[in-house]
Amino acid sequence: MPTVQACLFDLDGVIVDTAKYHYLAWRQLANQLGFDLTLEQNELLKGISRMESLEIVLGIGGVKLSEEEKLKYAAEKNAQYLEFCKQITPDDALPGVRDFLDELKEGAIKTGLGSASKNAKTILTNLDMLTYFDTIVDGNRATIGKPDPQVFLMGAQDLGVAPEHCVVFEDAVAGIQAAKAGGMIGVGIGQASVLTEADYVMPGFDGVTVKDLFDKLK
Ligand code: G6P
Ligand code: MG
Q1: E strand or H helix that includes residue 8
Q2: What is the pLDDT of residues 146-172, one digit of tens each?
Q3: pLDDT recorded at residue 43
Q4: Given this model, what pLDDT does residue 218 score?
Q5: What whole-number distance in Å separates Cα of residue 137 and Cα of residue 158?
Q6: pLDDT in tens, 187-212
Q7: Ligand number, closest to the Cα atom of 169
Q8: 12 part of the active site
Q9: Which of 29, 60, 102, 166 has the most CB atoms in a 10 Å sphere around its CB?
Q10: For residue 218, what are the β-bridge partners?
């Protein structure tokens, strides 16, 4: 494996569990439109942009809307989501992730955030983690969603690191596909049975040291 010079992190499901809030907000919208959304269906929305997620939700309910109505409902969902996110505090960073980022800093390895979320900076501010990243590529900058590698390639370029020297941490299948399509090393956060295309899968960062992980990637 080439030496690791940068680590790029997805936000939702890797740094913080916001999937539960996305789910509650999408479910509320679905209920309003007369159908329900299961947790299993919510899996389809992980890593997928807001407007694409709305299309999937509407498809599940068999609901057709005008473009204007879609924008209105997406804005409503987002307002509800942000309301839930107000309760996020620094304690909500997923176990071990802050220590892992500290260790990367000590080892002079660059760090970036690569997220489809347009709310990434708000969430990082609530976590008091905005300064942990040398660059942030969020849904306001990236124009093409995962599994396209754009979001991670922009991050690598910002950091001045070639893709093969980047490790991407991702909980979504589409995110791992984006990392691999960009020529990066993809570390899955979750289950190996789900994240089958990842180079390595771990349940989270709890108890994981940078050295141990990099040794495993060799
Ligand atoms: C992340 C989440 C998705 C979410 C997307 C857009 O990728 O995993 O579930 O739809 O961000 O988030 P936003 O905060 O912009 O609605
Ligand atoms: Mg994610």
Answers
A1: strand 6-9
A2: 999 999 999 999 999 999 999 999 999
A3: 85
A4: 83
A5: 9
A6: 999 999 999 999 999 999 999 999 99
A7: 2
A8: yes
A9: 166
A10: none
CA end-to-end span of the chain: 5
Q: Tell me: the pLDDT tens digits for 32-81?
A: 999 999 999 998 899 999 999 999 999 999 999 999 999 999 999 999 99
CB atoms within 10 A of CB 166: 27
Alpha carbon nearest to ligand 1 atom 12, residue = 117
Which among 53, 54, 84, 146 is the best mutation to test ligand 1's pocket, defined by most ligand atoms within 8 Å of the CB? 53
Two tokens, residue 103: 């260790």
Element (H, E) at 135: strand 135-137
pLDDT in tens, 41-54: 998 899 999 999 99
Q: How many CA atoms lie within 13 A of 26 on its CB side?
A: 30
- Which of 23, 37, 50, 84 maximizes ligand 1 atoms within 8 Å of its Cβ, making it the mutation to test the pocket? 50
Contacts of 40 (CB under 8 A, 6+ apart): none
List b or e across 202-217, with b for residues whose CB sees 16 or more CB atoms inside 10 angstroms: bebbeebebeebbeee
What confidence score (pLDDT) does residue 1 get? 62
Q: Are 113 and 124 in contact (CB under 8 A)?
A: yes
Whole-angstrom Cα Rg for the chain: 17
Round to whole Å and give the CA distance between 18 and 15: 9
Q: Whose CA is nearest to atom 6 of ligand 1?
A: 117
Residues with Cβ < 8 Å from 15, sequence gap 6 or more?
9, 93, 94, 97, 113, 124, 127, 129
